[in-house]
# Entry
Amino acid sequence: MKLRSVYFNLFCLVVFSVFSLASFSHTHAQITNDIPSAIEVDIAPQNPGPNTETSITIKNYSTDLDRATITWSLNNKQLQKAVGSTHFEFRTGPLGTPSVVTVVINTVSGRTIRKNITLRPSEVDLVWETSGYTPPFYRGKSIYVNQGFVTVVAIPNMVGINGKKLNSKNLVYKWSVDGEIKGSDSGYGKDSFVFQGGIVPQPTTISVEASSLTDGTRASASIELDPERPELLLYQDDPLYGIFYNRALLETFRLTDDEVTFLALPYFFSGKTPTVSSLSYVWSMNGTDLGDTAKKNRVTLRRSGQTESGSATISIGLENSRDILQGARHDLSISFEAKGKEVKF
# Structure
């Protein structure tokens, strides 16, 4: 009897142990499955500036957010609460003023997930300039042309968590062109970026993200540059008054003197002067190439011989041998009165 009792007790102990182990493993599996993965947060715009309409969307693939009760608060003030409310919109405050967004998720299984999102609005401006040539006294900005060089400078306006404005030279800059990060041009203190247009004329988007080394404050900006064609204009070079930069000769010119000198000036071509070696000028009159008669960007016309009143067309073409997409042409009709002479070079 004692031996049977011992066996019986051992049997009961084994059964109880197996049952307890099975129950513990089952409960542990439930807890593991019920723990959600990290909440994914999408913010648009990614780095909002001051007084900017901003939206936040949350995602989670291990928790049914469509059935969960989601509460949104801004700076401890509840603004939105609904089942499946995965999207929240608000407006950021002034520069450097933090916006603390709190989202609380109550799942159907009874769990509570809480997440805080702090946004500190900052901004960065982008200004650009090209190295294209413009004549003296030109008041406009040199435009971006095919295969032109552009220098883009970032001017950040960012306030750190201590309330002080961040020095632009102490920020990290990440530059990208059409979404492709330019690693060698990015880094600490690199607040400028030099870009040359490609062989295919098309719009180009240049972006920058500026961020603090210490507190995570960041701002971003983008600009789109669409290349245009360079231009070529003619001006009269008067022996007494000099070049009439204030009056371009567009379509017609009336020849009243016995001699006139025309000066061709390129607009926005790459180069510091209009006579750089890569620029090639070709002059013609009534379709006939003038060859060496016309030197570079200047030509002189003189009257000689007997002639009646009439007209002639002078044309000039300009090409850039280094940047082959940069080219221009200009035609000018010259009219002259009868003076018993003909136009000659």
Notes: Residues 1-37 have pLDDT under 50 and may be disordered. Helices lie at 2-34. Residues 231-344 form a domain with the Immunoglobulin-like fold (CATH 2.60.40.10).
